[in-house]
Amino acid sequence: MAAAVSVQLVPLRRLAPVTALLCEALRREAGRCWSELVALHVASRGGKWLTERELKALSKGGRFRLHSQSVQALAEKLIANVDTARTNRTQEQEAGAEPTTRFPYREKPYQTVTWKGQAVRVEGERLVLPNGRTQADLVLPLPARFHGADIRQVELLWRADHYQMALTIAEPPPKPDEQPAPDERAAGQVAGVDLGEVNLAAVCTQDGQALVVNGRLLRHLKQLRNKRHAAYAERQARCKKGSRRWKQLQRQKSRTSAKLYRQQRNILHQASRKVIDFAEAHSVNELAIGDVRDIADGVAKGRHANQKISQWPHGQFRRYLKEKGERRGMRSTLTGEAYSTRTCSCCGHCHPSAPRGRVFRCSGCGTTIHRDANGAANICSKQVYGRYAAVQVKHTMHRQAAAVRVPTRAKVAGSKRAVSPPGDGTPPEASPFTGR
Ligand SMILES: [Zn+2]
């Protein structure tokens, strides 16, 4: 079995000027190398396309001021991109459309630099990354938590206003006594997960325990981002494109975006952690996640709703759930979720339209239940019994997605939205939604 690896991101802020310059030179050199490889590949497309081996052979000879394996990594990346494009084009053709995915063709001023494990050296508290005979080694500080780690790969990235390194680290194999006993996991139950925009996730286990993770903070951040973006764009529109002022605004704009993206990532990580902790506490071994992948297809819900949906990072969130779940021995499956929000999980009555607001009221049996918990119960029911309404919600807990300082508006005393305190052990604020 291949060793499990994880990727850890390390921001490189406040680098010595000489180091920052070297980072830039390396990334630019990688861009030059990439552009040449792309040009070679494009030229070969008239006849027999270059293979990875041929591409690597052509890039040999020390023409680039990079480590030879860094050059090879770029050739591998290009071939991987070509393969992905080919797969996508095939899929598009099978769907009966003219393929729109293009094979790589663009020149890049900068490109990510990759160092493979054999080239990476750790000297004390520093990481030494060699760049061939004609270029100096890149020496970066290595945070204490990575001392003694088995580093398989290092990548040098640029993020809006700072460099970042991505370390691929082999995780030590779990000790035998830490692995979940197989029979214990086999006896676990299924939980349905309903992904939403207002509530990031609602989970409901087979025995009716539900958790709703609120995502308003994330939505607030998105709205903030859109507002800021619009403001910058408006100011940019008043200056000449490409001018000094314009570039300055562009930098500020991408810096703001990058920060909000990091905050979003943080929220999604914390929210998925809460879901997985909850699932583990109820000995869940399978997450049935409602499939919302095609929600953006073919719907015109107006400019605002469309913006919300296209910015709803459900794919990212689903990936976090899957990865965190797998570490605790839970598998995840995608389940069709059509009609799950308008079917009553109590009596199975299917309403003609989805409920408005956050509460589901059944006109058939009179149940009042949290809308997303209802959806999650139905997804769970579908996965286990093949039909809706076989799992009932007995108790619902509410959690904020993240214990981050919340924008002032929500902190007004007495506001219902006041966030739960960090640490988050306490407030299963007796839910008004306790379906029978
Ligand atoms: Zn009902």
SSE map:
Blueprint: E1 5-12, H1 17-44, H2 52-58, H3 68-94, E2 113-116, E3 121-123, E4 126-129, E5 138-141, E6 150-159, E7 162-170, H4 182-186, E8 189-195, E9 199-205, E10 209-214, H5 216-237, H6 244-281, E11 284-291, H7 303-310, H8 314-327, E12 331-336, E13 359-361, E14 368-370, H9 371-385, E15 395-400
Parallel strand pairs: 8-11, 10-15, 11-12
Antiparallel strand pairs: 1-7, 2-6, 3-4, 4-5, 6-7, 8-9, 9-10, 13-14
Helix pairs in contact: 1-3, 5-6, 6-8
Short description:
With 436 residues, the protein is an alpha+beta fold. The chain has two domains: 5-170, no CATH class; 185-411, no CATH class.
Describe the overall structure.
With 436 residues, this protein is α+β, with helices and mostly antiparallel strands. It has two domains: 5-170, no CATH class; 185-411, no CATH class. It is built from nine helices and 15 strands. It has helices spanning 17-44, 52-58, 68-94, 182-186, 216-237, 244-281, 303-310, 314-327, 371-385, and strands at residues 5-12, 113-116, 121-123, 126-129, 138-141, 150-159, 162-170, 189-195, 199-205, 209-214, 284-291, 331-336, 359-361, 368-370, 395-400. The strands form four sheets. The protein has a six-stranded mixed sheet with strand order 12-11-8-9-10-15. A four-stranded antiparallel sheet has the order 1-7-6-2. Strands 3-4-5 form a three-stranded antiparallel sheet. A hairpin with a 6-residue loop joins β13 and β14 (368-370). α1 packs across α3 (68-94). It is elongated and about 75 Å long. It binds zinc ion. The site of zinc ion has 8 residues, from loops.
